[in-house]
């Protein structure tokens, strides 16, 4: 019994010799499966650029299905889907521009503020600590706990001195 080669893209296995593997890797089925796998990881900007160059697929628009699937050279995106991609690309671009530090290093106070502001809506502050940090009530009664065991609160993080941590 010889070794077998398993292709993750095609979900099949075959005899592992040089000729069989070479034939499989150069086959059209393998190349389309590989391309469709990597297309799922494209960022919204790249997808938008590609879709702007394509014309809508008439078969997909009229029937709702296309025999070529993701390998079709025409666009299968509806105007609402393109609008969503535009919104995703704009959000990603705005996050990148906000995350760019001024002097090359991120400001630790800004990182802490962003973390605590974006996790949960701050309008309901009494539930904030309960939802985020499930600290036992007995721990709050001990005043001399090391900082690593103290319940995390945004006020303590702003005044934190990491050199005291042991």
Automatic annotation (TrEMBL):
Residue ranges occupied by any C3H1-type domain in the UniProt entry: 51-79
One cellular component (GO) term of this entry: U12-type spliceosomal complex
Record organism: Atta cephalotes
Keyword Methyltransferase: no
Location in the cell: Nucleus
Entries under PROSITE patterns matching the protein: ZF_C3H1 (PS50103), ZF_MATRIN (PS50171)
Keyword Disulfide bond: no
Annotated Gene3D superfamilies: Classic Zinc Finger, Zinc finger, CCCH-type
GO terms for MF: nucleic acid binding; zinc ion binding
Record's keyword terms, sorted: Metal-binding, Nucleus, Zinc, Zinc-finger
Name of the protein this chain belongs to: C3H1-type domain-containing protein
Principal location class: nucleus
Zinc finger (C3H1-type): 51-79
Ranges for domain Matrin-type: 5-36
Highest taxon of the lineage: Eukaryota
Gene for this chain: 105620963
